[in-house]
């Protein structure tokens, strides 16, 4: 597996502001992903963070709302822009180590928008 | 129809019981299959991959039926520490991103 950290672990933000979440892995990985888990729900994929190119977004998620950076093979950021209370969720990054499609998750960032 | 469907539970079972979870998936192109475990307020952790031949890891047995697009997880001799939500997860060939079921909650009682 891999050691994955996320910062911040939690935050409370006002509507209309933006928050950038960082994800750091202790080894180089090709594929990183960002997921959202809304209260009482399962995980939904936001986008695949591609190193050296634009992220690939899932239906219902757009770059203007969730810009993603992937400057190298160990780091990625997700920004939640112009936040509203509906954005209150846990945001998780994951990595695919290239072994049988298995993915490992960071501890998540718990976001509350007031 | 959801891509991955699970019985949400909760399953309330006594310690030592055997419990089975089922899952169906709609995309016949799905290639890889997993069970993840998620404790309250924690991230999902990979419990086991699921192979066509079936696989076992201690008290846990997973099976896959590709023809029926059905996945199962059997937990024998349940422990209190098995209490968690169990997530059925699939991924498509080449896409590598995971599609999650809604999860089945298990509560093992003393």
Keywords:
heterodimer; A: 114 residues; mainly beta; seven-stranded mixed β-sheet; B: 110 residues; 11 strands; 56% strand; globular
SSE layout:
The complex is a heterodimer of chains A (114) and B (110).
Chain A: E1 4-7, E2 10-13, E3 19-25, E4 31-37, E5 43-49, E6 56-57, E7 68-72, E8 75-80, E9 89-96, E10 103-105, E11 109-113
Parallel strand pairs in A: 2-11
Antiparallel strand pairs in A: 1-3, 3-8, 4-5, 4-9, 5-6, 7-8, 9-10, 9-11
Chain B: E1 4-6, E2 11-14, E3 19-25, E4 30-38, E5 45-50, E6 55-57, E7 60-65, E8 70-75, E9 84-92, E10 98-100, E11 104-109
Parallel strand pairs in B: 2-11
Antiparallel strand pairs in B: 1-3, 3-8, 4-5, 4-9, 6-7, 7-8, 9-10, 9-11
Task: Please provide a brief summary of the model.
The complex is a heterodimer of chains A (114) and B (110). Chain A is mostly beta strands.
Percent helix range of chain B? under 10%
Instruction: Calculate the mean pLDDT score of chain B and round it.
Output: 93
* Rg of chain A computed from alpha carbons, rounded to a whole number of angstroms: 13 Å
Termini separation of chain B: 37 Å
Q: What is the terminal-to-terminal distance of chain A?
A: 36 Å
Q: Average pLDDT across residues of chain A?
A: 94
Characterise the protein shown here.
- The complex is a heterodimer of chains A (114) and B (110).
- Chain A is mainly beta.
- Helices cover 0% and strands 51% of the residues of chain A.
- The termini of chain A are far apart.
- The mean pLDDT of chain A is 94.
- Chain B is mainly β and 110 residues long.
- Helix content of chain B is 0%, strand content 56%.
- Chain B contains no helices and eleven strands.
- The mean pLDDT of chain B is 93.
- Chain A binds chain B through residues 1, 31, 33, 35, 41-45, 48, 58, 92, 94, 96, 100-108, and chain B through 31-32, 34, 42-46, 49, 87, 91, 96-103.
